[in-house]
């Protein structure tokens, strides 16, 4: 998975964790025991920040220093670049 730069733990489901790393975004559904790449639509570059919307838990934001801001509305299954 690489160096973790930022973590976001879902307050409604604490076993769900999102990690921003130097090699991409990752998601764990089992409190960090196993990790998988976080959905389609993200480039495979460094992500420095991941944040969950406080009211809409399925909405996430990820920031890449080289590719910009991305948004997921389905819990990191898919992503799109936003202006």
Which structural class do the helices and strands define? mainly beta
Distance between the termini: 27 Å
The residue ranges in which pLDDT falls below 50 over 5 or more consecutive positions are: none
Lateral strand order in the biggest sheet? 1-2-3-4
| Share of residues in helices | under 10%
Number of helical runs?
A: 0
The secondary-structure element order is: EEEEEEEE
The strand count comes to 8
Major sheet: size, sense and barrel closure? 4 strands, antiparallel
Shape, please?
globular
Percentage beta strand: 35-45%
Overall pLDDT metric: 86
**Whole-angstrom Rg:** 11 Å
What features would you describe in this structure?
It is globular and about 30 Å long. It has no helices and eight strands. With 83 residues, the protein is mainly β. Strand 2 (17-21) and strand 3 (24-28) form a beta hairpin.
Supply database-style keywords.
0% helix; mainly beta; 83 residues; four-stranded antiparallel beta sheet; globular
Quick recap of the structure?
The protein has no helices and eight strands. The protein has 83 residues and is mainly β. The mean pLDDT is 86.
